């Protein structure tokens, strides 16, 4: 991992180093600096404008629309800004290559992915112990986290409202291979020291409304900076108190990114993430008779044998199949869009060629 540059001293205004700027970022920014652009990290992006932090302080910048030179800026991006001039704000001229990106399918369910956060190191998947456990949703969020390239950590919140947090943790551990599962309570402070020690770099809190993300974030920050709200007693759901993604430096180093509660988390090109989230099934599949076994009714299927023996819950296999189908559908939509884009380019070139020949004929 790249060495972080020295952070600002206590009490000083946050600098880029406090937001994760390191030697790798400095090296990548050399051509932009020579062009007179300024380094910044985007801490909030919305509707063509963004809030960014620079060594000179926070700025409000204008974002250029997505183009062939790169994706539109997202929260967590490292960006190159043109300086502000009288009457005009700074402009995001370029976005540095992302190390990681947390991507879900867009809310419109089209073929484009929606970047929730860029350059993420740790994804804290929050699960409330004050409501019935929904393992399918946890598996879905873990697939997104693994696909991102960051390290997922499952954070069980509101342990003080659960009669047996230990049993709940063991149950969740069964659907989160490869990820730490931590029991916490922002109210009593249980598990907070352990959680702070596990989190590193840019940390994203991911989970549904009511899971306690903002309350957990305030505990990590040591102050009530993130908005929180009550949870309905009827279904354990909360309101969207966080309306946008926002980044805040953590007191012990690193950056916290709080996200709005997600009602729907669609997969987008998450094949590798699914393999990691369901690594136990992939391990069992190595013993199947056929290498292309679909784990449905094939003879010699080691996965089905594990279900019959009670070693693998049938619910987990069903969840795996469902998410695989969803991801395959999303991939087919993406492939269709790419083919359509290539065909549109081909047709545009053909039209221009015909126009040139038509013009030449008219000049004769």
From TrEMBL:
Its cofactor is Zn(2+). The keyword Transmembrane does not apply. Monomer. Associates with 30S ribosomal subunit, binds 16S rRNA. It is an enzyme of class 3 (hydrolase). SUPFAM superfamilies: P-loop containing nucleoside triphosphate hydrolases (SSF52540). HAMAP family: GTPase_RsgA. GTP binds at residues 157-160, 207-215. Binds 1 zinc ion per subunit. Residues 118-263 form the EngC GTPase domain. The keyword rRNA processing does not apply. Belongs to the TRAFAC class YlqF/YawG GTPase family. RsgA subfamily. It comes from Streptomyces sodiiphilus. This is Small ribosomal subunit biogenesis GTPase RsgA. Signal peptide: none annotated. Zn(2+) binds at residues 288, 293, 295, 301. It comes from the Bacteria. Residues 109-265 form the CP-type G domain. Keywords: Cytoplasm, GTP-binding, Hydrolase, Metal-binding, Nucleotide-binding, Ribosome biogenesis, RNA-binding, rRNA-binding, Zinc. It is found in: Cytoplasm.
